[in-house]
Amino acid sequence: MSESPYTSDAQIAARFVAQDFNPDGDLAKPAWKRAQWVEFYHDMSGGRPYPEAHTRVAALWSASSVYFAFSCRYVTLNTYPEEDVTKERWELWNRDVVEVFINPQLERLNHYFEFEVAPNNQWIDLEINKDKNPFNDASWDSHFLHAVRVDAARHVWTCEMRIPVRSLGVTAISPSDKWRVNLFRADGPGSDAERRFLAWSTISEGTTFHVPSRFGLLSFVN
After folding, report:
1. What CATH number is attached to the domain comprising 217?
2. Is 207 domain-assigned?
3. Which of 34, 74, 178, 194 is most buried, most CB within 10 Å of its CB?
4. Mean pLDDT for each consecutive 10-residue tract of the chain (222 residues)?
């Protein structure tokens, strides 16, 4: 039996929802109240803490979709203002975003999917294949749904994503399935040296989010 290329023991469980819903950014829904939440507030290497960017994430699944919710503390918001948020935004990662990297085919370590949403609801989704150059294909379209809310008084912004599983090459999900995922946040203004880059499953070298061997485990439960 070959040794797994995955080295992370981070785990998150997605609970089943019988009824699909469209995201609106409101995390007070009953489904999210019964979800398992994980949190992170350190830089991607797990070293420097950023309590001002404390991030909570939960996941759900249905017969057709996988859902993610983010709740993000912030100091100031850094977005691309006055742009058309209905259009995909290349290099969105150069501003504030939450990100989900998903690999439903564990045997294909270098092939996965990337989803990003900004506090103003700008978005990008990409198919990633690190065996290719360039490795990120923005022409791929998952048709995922997403919505955000900003609570300026509490300095918290929230995001919901609904991702069609068929866009990931998956016919259906069953409770025995396990995927690999990582969850990220880019936060704050300035150069990359000044911004905060946070990861749920830490990456020791701390230079890029694109380290699929460090993806944690996503389990589907009832």
Report:
1. 2.60.40.1190
2. yes
3. 74
4. 88 97 98 98 97 98 98 98 95 98 97 98 98 95 98 98 98 94 98 97 95 98 94
Q: Give the chain's length.
A: 222
Quote the tokens at residue 71: 């709740």
Asked if residue 28 is part of any domain, the answer here is: yes
Q: What is the DSSP string of 34-59?
A: TSPEEEE-BBTTS-SB-GGG-EEEEE
The whole model's pTM is what? 0.97
Pairing mode, strands 178-187 and 196-199:
antiparallel
Nearest to 151 by CA among 82, 65, 74: 74
Domain span at residue 45?
11-78+89-221
Transcribe 51-117 into DSSP letters.
GGG-EEEEEEE-SSEEEEEEEEE-SS----TTS-TTS--TTGGGSSEEEEEEES-TT-TTEEEEEEE
Q: How far is CA 126 from the centre of its chain?
A: 12
Angle at 15 between CA 13 and CA 19, to 5 degrees: 155
- State the pLDDT at residue 176: 87
d(CA 46, CA 3): 25
Establish if 199 belongs to a structural domain.
yes
64 is a domain residue: yes
What would the two tokens of residue 3 be?
């040794």
CA angle 15-179-73, nearest 5°?
60
Total domain count, the chain? 1
